[in-house]
Amino acid sequence: MHHGACLCGQVRFTVRGALAAPWACHCSQCRKQSGHYWASTEVPRERLTLQGEEHLRWYQSSAKVRRGFCQHCGSFLFWDPPHKDWTAVAMGAFDGPTQTQLARHIYVASQGDYYTLNDGVPQNEA
Predict the structure, then answer these.
(1) CATH of the domain at 12
(2) What is the pLDDT of residue 61?
């Protein structure tokens, strides 16, 4: 079991089972919403339980995805493609160790000019 929450604790979540290796997205939408780049793990919806869901708000950022955040503290927690059977959960929102390692950087062609990716993790331009 892995537990996590937003900054103020109004939205909490539990993931049953091991976490998939996370990906870091450097696209402009993820950078603008998170303030840097977004790292998340894909969690099958049947393994994700939410508490305080009434405090969760959704922003439809494109025709294919919505982004979930706490209405009180603004923490960006979920990247959710309704046409898929999983939800991406923010790595930074987990409490304690996740037992994972970053697997890939994506949309690096859009990364900010203020940082360098030199961690040896595979990169995709898009």
Answers:
(1) 2.170.150.70
(2) 92
